[in-house]
Amino acid sequence: VIGAALIFKSILAIIWALIVFNILRVITLSVYLNTNYRIFHYFNKWDTKLLISQIKYTYPLGFANIVNKIGSRIDKFILAAYFTVSDFAVYSISQYRIPVVNLIFPSVSNVIIPQITKYQTEGKIKEVISLWHKLIVSLAVVTIPSMIYFFLIAEELIVFLYTDSFIDAVPLYRII
Predict the structure, then answer these.
(1) Within 10 Å of residue 85's Cβ, how many Cβ atoms?
(2) How far is CA 136 from CA 2, 52, 130, 172, in A?
(3) H helix count then E strand count, the chain
(4) pLDDT digits (tens, 9 = 90+) for 138-173
(5) CA separation for the pair 100, 47 (Å, rounded)
(6) pTM (2 d.p.)
(7) DSSP state of 168
(8) How does pLDDT run across 17-70, given as a tens digit for each residue?
(9) How open is the CA angle 112-114-120, to the nearest 5 degrees?
(10) Are 61 and 110 in contact (CB under 8 A)?
(11) Which residues of 93-108 are buried (b: 16+ CB within 10 A; e: fewer)?
């Protein structure tokens, strides 16, 4: 992938390099599985109707995953292709998140969401709404003050962590 980027200097070349790399991974994995576990021996025993129904079921999920992977990384490819190294560095620094918020969101959600699901299946809609409001309030109590704090100290924080050279990252950091 890096070779394609350096040689062709094109986003399309990078995407093709990723495709070729993943095809080679699939071929290597297939050869390994067939050599060690004789996995292809079991293919002729499959019910094709069930296989086709599984593919129809998982196709949208797989396609959504592909789109998600491309979408989550395409900004870096565009920056690498069309902007300078310093622009890429500024963008990379502005992408850092507030650590406390990144720890609290999954923790609170992992505790409350199963309970919400349980109440939903039991038909207890008032409890679902109550827990949902508690989730929103508990996350807002942490998120809003920390966002305001880091918004206000963004310039000092960037200068302290990365020197004056990256002062251009402050407005992007505040937005992101």
Answers:
(1) 9
(2) 43, 42, 10, 26
(3) 8, 0
(4) 889 888 998 899 899 989 988 888 888 888 888 888
(5) 50
(6) 0.54
(7) T
(8) 999 999 999 999 999 998 888 877 777 777 888 888 988 989 898 899 999 988
(9) 100
(10) no
(11) bbebeeeeeeebeeee
